[in-house]
# Entry
Amino acid sequence: MPDCIFCQIIERKTPSKIVFEDEQVMAIEDINPQAPVHLLIVPKKHIASLDDATPQEQTLLGHLLLVSKNIARERKIHTSGYRLLTNHGRGAGQSVFHIHFHLLGGRPMHWPPG
Ligand code: AMP
Ligand code: ZN
# Structure
């Protein structure tokens, strides 16, 4: 997807702080962090949002969750607590239409989210 910022980052056409990468996913620092730890876990495959995922993506999405968990442990936020979330649609605050999960931690997380 040429107009997609995350596809550009994955293809190394746009710089980003990459903290993890394997064949299927990439994790980057959010450019506008909302917590001391704010990473984006992004599949390399362009899927616009969770609503566009199909059963074909089951393994990929499971892998993405386990990668997120591993990164949370590496950052040592698994004991203090962290939040892993995806926004679907503009009404929920989605601004980049390439599915990604926010991994937020390093400060108290309030509920309900705004
Ligand atoms: P969302 O609003 O849920 O779609 O999340 C998109 C996130 O991507 C926001 O938290 C932005 O700060 C972040 N973002 C946008 N552009 C970049 C970029 N070039 N590098 C890193 N993070 C970005
Ligand atoms: Zn994309």
User: Anything to note?
Assistant: The chain has one domain: 5-105.
